[in-house]
Structure formats: structure tokens, C-alpha cells
């Protein structure tokens, strides 16, 4: 089965990988991320390259982190079911309800797989909306772009929180621990560098996050 096979949602396939925004110099910035990732210094990877536009940098990285989380969760889809995960939780203290403010205005309780499906559909709709993520060279970003990015990152964090709290044993069994930890460290350093997630939102994984911030 292809990693990026589209398939119907019911076949529980991976989502097709999103490309970096074509507009402006999205592909150049994507190459910069890939090149610096190879260096192993994630603090260096997340920094805004000299002379680059902050919104463009946020946009390219938003697509990148969406793809990473989509693939990570994709490897767990058969183990994260309405039966195993009837709510979208991150340990006993934290439970997330879904609302997008448009189709679902009041937060509803849904199973973890349904929450992730709603979330990924919602993010994809944002990424495909040219007035939010411009594709054309020189097209402006909306004034509230940073707020949109913050909401996307806040919600992507919840998928990491659910994976660590509910599926870490399976991650170990699949030998994906190192990959998950590297992706999460990259995510934490990026969101910290640009202050994209409020500290209170990070509480479910604070024990993992504090050492990353301290540089351990």
C-alpha cells in the first residue's frame, strides 16, 4: 500500500502528502528545511533564515508538520479505533472536543480517530484555501495568518499528546520511538521559537517538553 495512496477515508489509508506552498519561494524554503534537518541541529533548523519572510516560513513549516503528524498517526490508525479510544484524550486529565466554528459550532465529544479525521480535513481545507495559504508568487498573506497557524499547531499538538499517552507501547512495538521523538522535538522547538502554542496547552506533555526546552 502506497504511503500516500488517496483511497477512500473508510479504507483507512494514509493521506496524500501535501506539497510546500508553490507561491513565493516555498520550495526553496522547503529545501532549506530538508538540508538543515540533515545537520541534526534542530535548533538551527527552526530558525527563520536570514532575509526570509516570517509568514512564508510559518506556511512552509505548517505543511511540513501536517505531513509529519499525518504519517505518524497513519501508522497507528488500525490501533486507534472508536473502541480503543472512545474520546480524544491525553491521559486521564485531558480530553479534547471538536468544533471548527463553521460546520460544528459547539464542541462535541467524538472518538479519537473521528477527532483526528475532522482535524486533518479541517487543516487540509485551510492549506488549500488560497486566501489563507497563497500559492501565487507575491500574493499577500491575510492579516490573521499567524492566528490561523497558531490554531493549526495547537490542534496538531493534541495528536502528539494522544499518541504519547494512548499509543506509546505500540510505537515501541513498531520501533518508531526514535522517529516519533525526533519529530516531536522538532515540533516543540519550532512552536517555541515562534511562540505558537500557549504554555497551558502543552501541559499534557510537559514532562517531555521541559527537557527539550532546557536543551537535554
Automatic annotation (TrEMBL):
The record, for Pfam families, names: Mob1_phocein
Q: Where is this region: Disordered?
A: 1-26
Q: Where is the composition biased (Polar residues)?
A: 1-11
Family matches, as InterPro entries: MOB_kinase_act_fam (IPR005301), MOB_kinase_act_sf (IPR036703)
SUPFAM superfamilies cross-referenced by the UniProt entry:
Mob1/phocein
Q: What is this protein called?
A: MOB kinase activator-like 1A
Amino acid at each position: 500500500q502506497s504511503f500516500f495512496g488517496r483511497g477512500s477515508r473508510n479504507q483507512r489509508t494514509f493521506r496524500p502528502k501535501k506539497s510546500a506552498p508553490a507561491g513565493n519561494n516555498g520550495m526553496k524554503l522547503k529545501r532549506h528545511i530538508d538540508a538543515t534537518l540533515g545537520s541534526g541541529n534542530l535548533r538551527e533548523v527552526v530558525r527563520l533564515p536570514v532575509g526570509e519572510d516570517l509568514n512564508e516560513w510559518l506556511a512552509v513549516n505548517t505543511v511540513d508538520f501536517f505531513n509529519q503528524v499525518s504519517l505518524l498517526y497513519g501508522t497507528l490508525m488500525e490501533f486507534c479505533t472508536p473502541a480503543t479510544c472512545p474520546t480524544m484524550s491525553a491521559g486521564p486529565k485531558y480530553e479534547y472536543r471538536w468544533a471548527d466554528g463553521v460546520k460544528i459550532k459547539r464542541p462535541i465529544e467524538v472518538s479519537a480517530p473521528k477527532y483526528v479525521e475532522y482535524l486533518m480535513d479541517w487543516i487540509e481545507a485551510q492549506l488549500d484555501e488560497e486566501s489563507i495559504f497563497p500559492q501565487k508568487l507575491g500574493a499577500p498573506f491575510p492579516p490573521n495568518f499567524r492566528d490561523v497557524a497558531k490554531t493549526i499547531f495547537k490542534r496538531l499538538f493534541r495528536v502528539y499528546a494522544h499518541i504519547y499517552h494512548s499509543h506509546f507501547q505500540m510505537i515501541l512495538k513498531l520501533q518508531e520511538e526514535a522517529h516519533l521523538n525526533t519529530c516531536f522535538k522538532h515540533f516543540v522547538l519550532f512552536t517555541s521559537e515562534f511562540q505558537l502554542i500557549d504554555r497551558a496547552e502543552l501541559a499534557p506533555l510537559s514532562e517531555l517538553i521541559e527537557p527539550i526546552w532546557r536543551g537535554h
